[in-house]
Amino acid sequence: MPHSVTSKQVGTATLSYDGKSAPLPVLAGSLGPACVDIRKLQGELGVFTFDPSYGATASCESSITYIDGDAGILLYRGYPIEQLAEKSTFLEVAYLLLFGNLPNTAELGVFTNGVTRHTMLHEQIRRFWDGFRRDAHPMAMLCSVVGAMSAFYPDSIDTQDPRQREISAYRMIAKIPTITAWAHKYNAGQPFVYPRNDLNYSENFLHMFHAVPAEPYTQNPILTRAMDRILILHADHEQNASTSTVRLAGSTGANPFACIAAGIASLWGPAHGGANEAVLKMLAEIGHKDNIPAFIAQVKDKNSHVKLMGFGHRVYKNFDPRAKIMQQTCYEVLEALGIKDEPMLDLAMELEKIALEDEYFVSRKLYPNVDFYSGIILKAMGFPTTMFTPIFALARTVGWISQWMEMIEDPQQRIGRPRQIYTGAATRDYTPIDQRG
Ligand code: ACO
Description:
Blueprint: E1 8-17, E2 20-28, E3 35-36, H1 41-45, E4 65-68, E5 73-76, E6 79-80, H2 81-87, H3 90-99, H4 105-116, H5 138-152, H6 162-188, H7 201-210, H8 221-234, H9 241-250, H10 256-267, H11 275-286, H12 292-300, H13 321-336, H14 343-357, H15 359-363, H16 371-380, H17 388-409
Antiparallel strand pairs: 1-2, 2-3, 4-5, 5-6
Helix pairs in contact: 2-8, 3-17, 5-6, 5-10, 6-7, 6-17, 7-8, 8-13, 8-17, 9-10, 9-17, 10-17, 11-16, 13-16
This protein binds acetyl coenzyme *A.
């Protein structure tokens, strides 16, 4: 089970308002800035705090992932992402995120066996696809099918039962590759390929995604490794929009499948997981290096609402460490596939170079994020653009379920319920319709 480091009081901040003062505890965790605990503020001073988009608010204590956005550091359970990306497998990372420590050989064997034995979907779930249009976006299919899982696995939706929570975690991690691959097969008009338990996690996903019954599918170890690395890099990222969505939905006691479906919906947006798809669209629209200056001018024009996709991050004000690993993986994949000149990559590198020197991006600390390169790798590996965000969702499922489990086990957990500053009409009396102007 996750070992929680509970924050400690390291000081007191005093807030004064309207002739009254409130001493507020200042809390610190194991790393990162201290936080003012404002839970008693309303009782003491009669005021709330205002923080739309939560840029200055910690919503929970968590011992899973740590980001230092200024230094470009990302840790899973204390381990630097660079070490995990180089040395571990995705299932090892999944175990680490879920249970708090890297598994020993026996623990990894039991975990792998558990995940492997849950990869098939209830056969009735197949029929869901018949209801979708052939051109349905795969994120729409993911969202619906994952939400529907609560109707198929009702034996693991009691959120108060630790054993059921664990089974639903296994189910989610094991079945999401099957759902993701089948969403693609439905779009492509190809037969669904069933999971194969003799393959590892990434091999199994690539097999279900790319194989057709007409010929054998051969795994390329460099691509399998790249797939595993992409999954590791996307596995968790502290309290981002989709994870916070999962936690907020989960705080009501909603079942885990419904919560993950909510996370998938939140990830879909182009400001979040949809950015990898948007990067490729952007590169295609730019088309040629010669068009970069005009595109950059458009991005800098506030009236255009055009953004440089794959750049910028709410927390990273330095290079996203995942982007560096992605760039390296990108070269490895292109070499393994014998792709010598990839115009998209050349264009992306030129765009990155120009943006990193431009005062607009430098002054706003806008650097490439994980999605800047992931789309190019996924495209080279034969994934259609619409599958980029579903693959992100596949990877992030382990983060979502780990954060959901941590939340349920947190004794401080209550239903999430933000307040507001009301700016509407003050109290007024009902006017009969014939007296309204
Ligand atoms: N292109 C151009 N300008 C940008 C970009 C960008 N990609 N990102 C931020 N800015 C500008 C903003 O317009 C703002 O300018 P201003 O101060 O003159 O008004 C300034 O930089 C600060 O940006 P915010 O919007 O305050 O940053 P915020 O934290 O709200 O947004 C976000 C972060 C959503 C990631 C944003 O940078 C963005 O939209 N990036 C492009 C989409 C993208 O790549 N998303 C993936 C994020 S990583 C992930 O989810 C895996």
